[in-house]
Write a structure and sequence with these properties.
Distance between the termini: 16 Å
Helix content: 25-40%
CATH topology: Alpha-Beta Plaits
Shape: elongated
CATH superfamily: Dimeric alpha+beta barrel
Number of domains: 1
Bound molecules: [(2S)-5-oxo-2,5-dihydrofuran-2-yl]acetic acid
Number of strands: 4
Number of helices: 2
CATH class: Alpha Beta
Strand content: 25-35%
Order of helices and strands: EHEEHE
CATH architecture: 2-Layer Sandwich
Radius of gyration: 14 Å
Length: 92
Amino acid sequence: MLFKVEMTVNIPKDMPAEEFEAIKLKEKNYAQKLQEDGIWMHLWRVVGQYANVSIFDVKDNTELHDLLMGLPLYPFMEMSVTPLCPHPSSIK
Ligand SMILES: O=C(O)C[C@H]1C=CC(=O)O1
């Protein structure tokens, strides 16, 4: 099942820089593993924002829920999830 997920990150202004760098590194490793596994199919930066648009290919809603909840930056994210299905005019 394909989902579009939009994530916006809001880091508290008082978070120490070392803590922020450590969470970002964990997030990068987590995101890159899911990309290598073919689950996180697209990851695009939204220009001018600390936000991304992503496409996930998962077995079901529960798999997506669990992996989003596992994001190290999850506590600092606003998230919007949209299910996708094939477009009848798509040539792919
Ligand atoms: O930077 C972001 O958009 C947040 C998050 C998503 C992947 C990742 O490495 O960080």
